[in-house]
Design goal:
Elements lengths: L9 E4 L5 H11 L5 E5 H19 L3 E7 L3 H12 L5 E5 L4 H18 L5 E5 L7 H6 L6 H14 L4 E3 L2 H11 L4 E4 L18 H6 L4 E4 L1 H4 L4 H12 L8
Helix pairs in contact: 1-2, 3-4, 6-7
The structure holds cytidine-5'-monophosphate.
The site of cytidine-5'-monophosphate (C5P) has 13 residues, from strand 8.
Length: about 250
Amino acid sequence: MASLKPANPVFVALDTPSLNDATNLAAKLADHVGGLKLGLEFFSAHGPKGVQQVQRASELPIFLDLKFHDIPNTVASAVRAVCQLGVYMINVHASGGRAMMEAAVKAADDTVHELAVARPLIIAVTVLTSMDANDLGETGVAASPADHVRRLAALTKASGLDGVVCSPQEAAALKSELGAGFKLITPGVRPAWSAANDQKRIMTPEDALSAGADYLVIGRPITAAADPAAAAARIAAEIRPYIKTSG
Ligand code: C5P
């Protein structure tokens, strides 16, 4: 499978378990977004074949958001399997630890070497944004969510991964701490003209890119719009002046 490069930094979240909805949206959005994010709900329903169908319908890079978190050997096997799909980006939980993250990178390196394809970016989730200080405390983590994010992001970089998912509000600090080459993927992005929905700490696409985000994950402002292609085209036009040309 050819390795695809995103034409712009927007990955649209196709948060649906419906194969029809996903392939229809993927085809409609192909000219206006950089890539597609498929997650656990879609993968649990349609598996690797579903991912390939969406990929064929759009010819867009895929961020396969499965958030692996298991012992290093199991995560390595899962990474080997998803590398064969030719996806652009995959992710793991940083709280799985250094050995698990290093095993993920090694499995990806070995697999893409064997297949002679490009390695997917391997990204980590630090602290789920659904967790607050109290939730962390209940899991035995005494640090504040912000401190724990910084600790796990530094561990992610030290383990050889390519970047982290973070809130756009955290992007500027993480970029200056971890360097320009360490990729930041930000959900919680809302154009000024769209509804916030249940997202609490939002930024516009332009502000998120200015703060240092490398890729923007945007769902409902596009997928729930009356005309998803027009919404995606509007975002693409608005962010054009803010897109970095390198890296
Ligand atoms: O529709 P919306 O733009 O809010 O979708 C954002 C996407 O990013 C969803 O797939 C959501 O699960 C995901 N996400 C998030 N916040 C995080 C991590 C992932 O909104 N911290």
